[in-house]
Amino acid sequence: MKNEASSSHSREESVVSDWGRQRSSCGYCKSSGRTSISHGLLAYGLTVNDYQDLLDRGWRRSGCSLYKPEMERTCCPSYTIRLKASDFVPSKEQLRVYRRMQRFLDGKLEGRKPNELAENPSASKNTDSSNHHTGSSSAGNESFSCGNKGKNKVEEFMLHLSDQIDKLVLRYIKSGEFPPGIQLPKAEVKKVTHAKRKLSVEGSEDLLYSSNIAFQIEATLRRKQSAENIQQSQMPGQSSEENDLTPKGIAEKLACALNKLPNISGLSIRACNGHINFYSAAKDVSLDGDVQIVAHPEESGSGSKSAKKSSEHPQGKKRKLEIRLKRSSFDPEEYALYRRYQIKVHNDPSDRVTKSRYRRFLVDTPLLFVSPSADAMVPPCGFGSFHQQYIIDGKLVAVGVIDILPQCLSSKYLFWDPDYAFLSLGKYSALQEIGWVKENEAYCASLQYYYLGYYIHSCSKMRYKAAYHPSELLCPLRYQWVPFHLARPLLDKQKYVILSDITNSQDGESSQSCIPESVIEQQHDDIRQEDSNDIPIEDKEMIEIESESSDDELDPETSGLGSAAVDNGDLTNILIGERGSRLRYKDLQRAFGNYLETQLHSYQRVVGLELSERMVYSLG
Asked: How far apart, in whole angstroms, are the C-alpha atoms of residue 131 and residue 118?
């Protein structure tokens, strides 16, 4: 792989020593024996490019220790899982997490236990993934499902408009104007903030609400057609336009029908570039007339009517969320939060949650920092290991431990304040990290992926990672990426699978549109069943810390490395480090003989030919 970091970084080097095979008890299946088997390295220094390549061969790091599961031998095969951020499609549950946080920040939600936040599924609405970062302060229909007394009339009306759209969609399905047999998404009408409102040409109408349901319907129809390989004239982007099943055509059809409904008054409804927009016929909307439902209480002025509205719906004090990215270092406040999290959430004995363990696991890093550059190759924060702090009103409530590399953000661990468990901070931080990758691709074109660590299909607590859709799993033999929806049926049958054996004519990068809706829904159903207590979602790599403390033994056996043993390779150019010198193995071969050669074959098989000739194999 070409060096993608800055030119100054190219002079740095990776230095590792080989620990060979390690056995330990398994924190996933809780087996009584030492059934977890991996190959280990100790990294004294590691370039971000080399670590990126190691990730793409199934390695992970815990502090300065690197490990790679021996997939055919270990009890719980661990598949590297990643997501292309630009393709991310948030689920309804993930969107609810965003809205819940926004309601909390707006002062409309106080701290409650998770079971007090149970929402009525029938009231939840799907929203467009491009809008979920904005966090509408109205919180949409979620206010209804939480059973609040004194419902906001604006929200009532938005729900009413959404229901009217849903009824029209059902009518078109029954009449055959929309294809039958497809479960189309529910509509959500959203309030347009004052800053985004636009007057019409005449200047007499004010844009109040909007819905992007036409885009969601078109995307669902397109996915269904692709999944079934429908070979007929109605193909996406071609004759679908003739059938008015483009977002523009769908929006125009729905807007025309909405304008004819007798139970929507005081509004002008028009389609605009695929959006359904709802306009008020008057600039100043009164709270007294027939159209009082479409008023915006917080923007209706300071008169007595507005005051009355506020007294009926008292608003809590707004909160401020800050997300700060800092380079990995020991921080007493972070350690105090980590200690509280481990003891309260994971029930760790207090004497095991020490500063030294915390430093070794989450602070120490072998990654060599790369400073930001202006050449579109390094993001503004640089490359390396970081702690992402989540601070609400000056209080540290969560810390995400991440590595930022040339091609990805690799998420390692998250710890959070147990008092804020109701906010699902693990899910929220994952969504923020995905968003961060999207934003920073503008500064570093190669930075496109979000790595979630290991996916372990045999461990139900680790299946939540597949909820971030559409994800890919790394083949443990050929190191090719395979879409999760193709890999899952095989993993349901056996733990260890050579994923690249799946015969598939699809291009992996375009497989997002080819995934059947039934598969997506089944994945989300599994997640909801497995994560009822909401704790596994937040843990990310919680098992790593348990494995780290196990009494690992160094197994001198290095032959038969299973899936890693593709071929023996040429050892002559392996880079050897001894007493500060850097030599190729061919220059030392006579001195060490077969003893070192056996170890080097093992090393080369697990890191690959290119890395074995690039990283320094330290002899001490």
From this structure: 23
